[in-house]
Amino acid sequence: MATVSLKKLVKRYDNLEIVHGIDLDVADREFIALVGPSGCGKSTTLRMIAGLEDISDGAIEIGGRTVNDLPPRARNISMVFQSYALYPHMTVRENMGFSLKIANEPKAEIERRVNEAAAILDLNHLLERRPSQLSGGQRQRVAMGRAIVRQPDVFLFDEPLSNLDAKLRTQMRTEIKKLHAKVQSTVIYVTHDQVEAMTLADRIVIMRDGHIEQVGTPDEVFRRPATRFVAGFIGSPPMNLQEATVDDGKLRFANGSSLPLPRQFQPNVAAGQKVVFGLRPDDLYPTGHGINSGDDADVHGAELPVSITEPLGNETLVFAEFDGHDWVSRMLNPKPLKTGDRIGMSFDLSQAHLFSAETGRTLRG
Amino acid sequence: MSATAREEILEQRSIRLPRLPAPVLLLMPAIVVLAAVVIVPLCLSLYSSFTPFRLTKPETFFVFIGLRNYANLLADWDFWAAFGRTVLLLTVALNLEMLLGLGLALMVEKATRGQRILRTLLMFPMMFSPILVGFQFKFMFNDNIGLVNNALQALGITGTAIPWLIEGHLAFIAILVAEIWSATAVFAILILAGLLAMPKEPLEAARVDGCTPWQTFRYVTWPFIMPFAYIAMTIRSLDVARAYDIVKIMTDGGPAKRTELLWTLISRTAYSDAKMGLANAMAYVSILLSILFTVYFFRKLAAARTQIGAEW
C-alpha cells in the first residue's frame, strides 16, 4: 500500500497544454475521486499515474518513489478500464491470473489468489467462461478481480461504471465501496458522475480545464464549495446561482429583486461589488415544507409564483420564479401545487453562498 | 367472349401445359447459366478423366477406361514429385509471407504519419500481373546480366556467376522469392486490418498487468490477429496451389523438371502431350489438395474466431 503524490504535473500534446501543473497528495489507503466534466484532464491525469501517458513536466511519486520514467509494469498499480479491457481470448480465470502468470508466480499461488478474488467478487461459477459470454456487470467484476489479484500498491479506476445501466451502476457502486473496505488499498477513481464521487470517496478532487478547483471531503465540497464551478457541479439538483450586486446591505439582482445580504458574508464584501449568489434547493423551500438549518433570523420569506413542479414521491421539486429566473426548491412533505400558484418561499440565508463574480472564488472568510 | 368462356379456355390450356411452380421458374435463368458454365464442363471433365481422351484423337473421348488414369497417376513419380514440390512451395511461401507480412503490418501500424501512403505502397506488388513479375525476376536472376548476380559480385560476396535459374534448388528459391515478393502484401494488408480493428484497451491493460512489449504481442495482439492471418493463409493457399504463371515464365518447370509444379505439369500433359484425359485426372487430384488446405485453414480460422469471441 502506498501514497501517491503529484507534483506540478503537466501534460502537453504538441503545444496544447491540457493539464496545468496540478499538485495532489493521496494518503495511504485513501479513496480519492477525480471528478469533473469531460475534457477536464481527469482521465489524462490517471493515465499519467498509470504510466500509459508520458509526463510533460512535473513528477509523480508512488510510495515515495519517483516513477516518471518507469513503465506501467514497474509501478505496481492495477487499473480498471471503462470498457473493461478484458482479454477476449482468455477465460475469466486466465484473465484474472494473467498478471501473475507474466510475473512467473507458481501455479498453486496463482490458483489460490484467483480463487480468493473470485470469492470476494462472487465470480466462482464464471471462472471457465470467456468475456463474450458475460453480462456487462459480470465483465466489470472480472476487471476488478483482475486488479485485485495483483495486490497492487494503488488501484486506478477509469470511469468503471459508465458503461453500465443505472440500476447496475448503483449496485456496483456499493460493491466497490465494500471492496475498498476489504482490500484496504489506495484508490484513485475517475468519474464524471458526482454521485459516484460523493458516495465512494474519502476525498474528492474536482477538476476543470486541467486545473484542480477544490480538494475536500464530500461534506466539504458540498457545504463549502471553494468556487462557483464546484458549487454548480456538486449536488443534484444543482445549486441555484444568480449574479447580484451588493447594495446597501442587500443583494440586488438584475431585474431589480433583492435579498438581504447573508450575515456571514457581510464583513467580506464591499458596496457595489459584483457577486454570484448561490442557494441549494434544500435551503430554498416552500414555507413549512423544509428544514431550517440555522437561525430563524436568517430565513427570508417571499411569495413567488410556481412555474413547474416535478413530483418525486417523497418530495417535489418546485421551480418558482424569482427575479425573472426559475429557482429550484425542494419541497418535503409535498402537497399538490399547480403552475401559477403563488406560494410563500423561505430562503435559508445562513446556508447561502457568495462567490466573486470576477474570479468565481468563494467570498467566505 | 364471355368471362366464363375465357376462364374455361385458360383452364384447358393449363391442363395441356402444366406450369412449373413459380420459384423454379424464377430460378430457371440462373440454373441454365450455371449449368452451361459450371455444371456441364465439370461433369465433362470428370468424365474425361475416366477416358484416354487425347485432343488429337477426338474419338478417344468415348472410350471408357475406368480408373486407369488414376491408377497410372499413383505410380507416376513425376506427378508425385510435382505434387510434393507444390506442397513444399506452399508451406515455405505461406510461412515466410506470413512472417514478413506480419512484420510489415506491425511496422506500418506504428507509423504515426503517412500510414495511408505506406498502405498504398504495400499494395504495389499486387498490382502487377504475375506474368510480368515472372519476367522481371527472370531478368533479375539471370546469371549473366541479372541484377542479383551483379549486386553480389559488385559487393564482393561472390566472384562467380551463380546459376540461379539453371541449378534446380536455386531455381526453386528464385521462384519462391518472386512468389513472396508478389504476395506478402496480402498478409500485410489483412493483418494490418486486424491490427487497426483491434481494441486498444486490452493492450493498455496488458502493459499495466506487467507485460513487456514482446509479451503483449505474444499473449494479446497475436491471438487477436490470428484469424486475419488465417484468412490470408486460406486465400494464399488456393493461390499457391494453382501457381503456374510465374513458374511458367521463370523456368517453365525446368531445369530438367526440377521446378515442375502441379499445374505446369498438368498444362504440359494436357496441351503439349495432348493427353487431356490424364491431365483432368491430375487436376482432380490437385483440387483435392486445395480443398484439404482450405478445410484445414477454415477450421483453424473458426477456432481462432471463437477464441477471441469475434462477433463477425
TrEMBL record, chain A:
Q: Topologically, how does it sit relative to the membrane?
A: Peripheral membrane protein
Q: Does the keyword Transport apply?
A: yes
Q: Pfam families given for it?
A: ABC_tran (PF00005), OB_MalK (PF17912)
Task: Please state where this protein is localized.
Answer: Cell inner membrane
Read off the SMART domains from this record.
AAA
> A Gene Ontology MF term for this entry?
ATP hydrolysis activity
Q: Name one GO cellular component term.
A: ATP-binding cassette (ABC) transporter complex, substrate-binding subunit-containing
What residue stretches are annotated with the ABC transporter domain? 4-234
Show the SUPFAM superfamilies listed in the entry: MOP-like, P-loop containing nucleoside triphosphate hydrolases
The record's listing under InterPro entries reads: AAA+_ATPase, ABC_transporter-like_ATP-bd, ABC_transporter-like_CS, ABC_transpr_MalK-like, ABC_transpr_MalK/UgpC-like, Mo/tungstate-bd_C_term_dom, NA-bd_OB-fold, OB_MalK-like
**Major localization listed first in the record, in broad terms:** membrane
Q: Which UniProt keywords apply?
A: ATP-binding, Nucleotide-binding, Transport
Return one Gene Ontology term, BP aspect.
Answer: carbohydrate transport
Family stated for the protein in its record: Belongs to the ABC transporter superfamily.
Return the protein name. Answer: Sugar ABC transporter ATP-binding protein
| Organism annotation | Pseudaminobacter soli (ex Li et al. 2025)
